[in-house]
Design goal:
Blueprint (H helix, E strand, L loop, with lengths): L7 E2 L3 E2 L5 E7 L6 H11 L8 H12 L4 H6 L1 H6 L4 H17 L2 E8 L11 H21 L5 E9 L5 H10 L5 E7 L11 H9 L5 E4 L5 H9 L5 E4 L7 E6 L4 E5 L1 H8 L4 E3 L1 H6 L15 H6 L4 E3 L4 H4 L3 H12 L3 H14 L4 H20 L3
GO molecular function, one term: adenosine deaminase activity
Family: Belongs to the metallo-dependent hydrolases superfamily. Adenosine and AMP deaminases family.
Cofactor: Zn(2+)
């Protein structure tokens, strides 16, 4: 596990205490290992480890295969223990507690209700159970003096044929905590166009959409997300860098040109929900290298793309948003201003009314200003 010292910026600023926003955070990818053990025992689910530390290590080992399909297999275990109302509510409640512990002031939790019906729950009952847990978690942290806002992102599995049904579910619960829609799962071979009816419906309902794209597939996937999905954000989106071409370079600078898709995404400030550690684990950035320093996030950031930083799956990557920011700071020399920019980008991208986004931005600015003043 990472130590607290690794989360310190020069001057002693504790990254964990800085206000943060988490936009790409999977509910079934953020369970506490001890919770998995306890729920598995209660429901007769086989677990590949006997202690929470061993189970945490098992997830890391399994998820370092370097490709998305193997990475996704670990969800068989987490989903298996999230098939009851009590299990879903507990996981959601603890998820909110963990976000608050990480300094997150606004989080969007994405998950796929269609994967949680094995023990008789209806789609609506799963959403209600998760919302119940979220509200319990918010109450828990508020008693500790921490304010946090949480929204659900209802996800359809892109390889299944329930997109429209799940889109209707999301809209049905827009007054019960659901703020947006997503499609996830095996990306290659399952473009957003396969769910065009769902996206047409969501557009007619003025309902926000983010789409996993540019992670396990390239520019065609991103193009379909934008055209067929009308995506307001791109889930990961890092392979947009395939549309950035080096023109020339010298000892100090690299000069590039943007292809039409990259130009569109940058100029229209379509947010990229990057998840650095996860992107390395799934091979999303293998075209550029195997280490964090090779990740195209810095290129995208320097070119003015609206980059946000996320965890994707805390359990699978053994990470937190604090840790992701710390790793980026170490790799690319980012300072407090850079980390603040990532949070302001996320605030602007949140699926909230503009007044609420502005309040988030103000909270971010105040928190980072306080941290800056502590250095004086």
């Amino acid at each position: 596990m990472t130590t607290t010292e690794e989360f310190l910026l020069p001057g002693g600023i504790d990254l964990r205490q800085l206000p943060k926003i988490s936009l790409h955070d999977h509910l079934d990818g953020g369970l506490r290992p001890q919770t998995i053990l306890e729920l598995a025992d209660a429901h007769g689910v086989d677990v590949p480890a006997g202690t929470s530390s061993e189970l945490a290590q098992w997830f890391l080992d399994q998820c370092n295969a370097g490709n998305l399909p193997d990475y996704l297999k670990t969800f068989d275990l987490t989903i298996a223990v999230m098939q009851t109302r009590e299990g879903l509510a507990r996981v959601a409640r603890e998820f909110v507690q963990d976000l608050a512990e990480d300094g997150v002031i606004y989080g969007e939790i994405r998950w796929a209700p269609e994967q949680h019906l094995q023990q008789g729950l209806s789609l609506d009952e799963t959403v209600e159970a998760v919302q119940e847990g979220i509200e319990q978690g918010i109450d828990d942290v508020s008693r500790e003096g921490f304010d946090i806002q949480i929204g659900q992102l209802i996800t359809a599995m892109r390889h299944a044929d329930r997109g429209l049904e799940i889109a209707e579910l999301a809209v049905r619960h827009r007054e019960n905590g659901v703020v947006g829609f997503d499609i996830a799962g095996a990306e290659k071979g399952f473009p957003a166009s396969k769910h065009r009816a769902a996206f047409d419906y969501l557009q007619s309902e003025f309902f926000p959409v983010t789409v996993h794209a540019g992670e396990a597939d390239g520019l065609d996937s991103i193009k379909s997300a934008l055209i067929d999905g009308r995506a307001l954000r791109l889930g990961h989106g890092v392979r947009i860098a395939e549309d950035i071409h080096t023109v020339r370079s010298d000892d100090e600078n690299q000069y590039v040109s943007l292809g039409p898709i990259a130009q569109w995404v940058r100029d229209r400030e379509i947010p990229l929900e990057t998840s650095p550690s996860s992107n390395l684990q799934t091979g999303a950035v293998e075209a550029w290298g195997e280490d964090l320093i090779d990740h195209p996030i810095d290129l995208l950031y320097q070119l003015g793309f609206r980059v946000t930083v996320n965890v994707d799956n805390r359990t699978m990557s053994g990470t937190t948003l604090t840790r992701e920011l710390g790793l980026l700071s170490d790799a690319f020399g980012y300072d407090l201003d850079d980390l603040e920019t990532f949070q302001l980008n996320a605030a602007a991208a949140a699926f909230l009314p503009i007044e609420d986004r502005e309040e988030l931005s103000e909270a971010i600015e105040e928190g980072f200003e306080d941290a800056q003043n502590s250095l004086s």
